[in-house]
């Protein structure tokens, strides 16, 4: 039996998702820890199907920093992936690993609440993301196209490792599925 059919109105096209996954692979990522998110649903599907990238799915954003730091200690290049609302939940472990131990980590956040946000409840996610990242002193960059992802992830690893500090890449625009 094949994969379950998508819900009506949801395309299974891999377009931007395939470019994002290839960008992650090109940057040497071999583990992606994530909380499922509808804005990156095809990206997560392709990651799960890819034999070169191991995936770890959790139900709580606070679990992700520990997985990524553990991978770092084991010599594995890992990314943390979640919706930008998750930065509120993951704030404590990110701060603990950063300020207490200076562990690097690369975070990819989908930008819920960015223009044009179609849901009333999504706006608060964007309104709180930047202030929290800034309060944690996490440098971040907004990416609008899937083609930007690979070079940005490679640069984020360089920056994160040399600074021993987290870096966040915020996926927006054409990177997202609406």
Describe it.
This protein is of the alpha/beta class. It contains 6 helices and 6 strands, in the order αβαβαβαβαβαβ. It has a 6-stranded parallel β-sheet, with helices on both faces. Helix 4 (86-100) links the parallel strand 3 and strand 4 (105-110). It starts with 14 loop residues before the first helix and ends in a 7-residue tail after the last strand.
Write the layout of secondary structure elements.
Elements: H1 15-26, E1 31-34, H2 41-49, E2 54-57, H3 64-73, E3 78-83, H4 86-100, E4 105-110, H5 123-135, E5 140-143, H6 149-163, E6 166-171
Helix pairs in contact: 1-2, 1-6, 3-4
Overview features:
178 residues; alpha/beta; disordered N terminus; 6 helices; six-stranded parallel sheet; globular; single chain
> Quick one: overall form?
globular
Largest sheet: 6 strands, parallel
Helix run count: 6
Number of strands: 6
- The helix-and-strand class reads alpha/beta
Distance, first to last CA: 28 Å
Strand percentage lies at 15-25%
Radius of gyration: 15 Å
The arrangement of helices and strands along the chain is HEHEHEHEHEHE
Helix % is 40-55%
Strand order of the largest sheet: 2-1-3-4-6-5
Q: Report low-confidence residues grouped into runs of 5 or more.
A: 1-13
Overall pLDDT confidence: 91
In short:
Helix 1 packs across helix 2 (41-49), helix 1 runs parallel beside helix 6 and helix 3 packs parallel to helix 4. The protein has 178 residues and is α/β, with parallel strands linked by helices.
């Amino acid at each position: 039996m094949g994969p379950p059919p998508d819900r009506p109105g949801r395309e299974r096209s891999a377009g931007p998702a395939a470019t994002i996954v290839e960008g992650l692979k090109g940057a040497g990522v071999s583990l992606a820890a994530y909380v499922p998110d509808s804005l990156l649903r095809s990206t997560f599907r392709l990651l799960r199907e890819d034999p070169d990238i191991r995936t770890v799915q959790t139900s709580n954003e606070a679990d992700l920093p520990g997985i990524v730091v553990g991978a770092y200690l084991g010599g594995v290049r890992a990314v943390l992936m979640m919706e930008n609302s998750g930065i509120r939940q993951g704030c404590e472990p990110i701060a603990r690993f950063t300020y207490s131990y200076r562990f690097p980590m690369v975070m990819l956040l989908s930008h819920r609440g960015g223009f044009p946000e179609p849901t009333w409840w999504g706006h608060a996610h964007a309104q709180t993301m930047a202030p929290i990242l800034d309060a944690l002193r996490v440098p971040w960059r907004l990416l609008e196209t899937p083609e930007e992802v690979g070079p940005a992830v490679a640069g984020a690893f360089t920056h994160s490792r040399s600074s021993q500090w987290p870096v966040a890449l915020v996926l927006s625009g054409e990177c997202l599925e609406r």
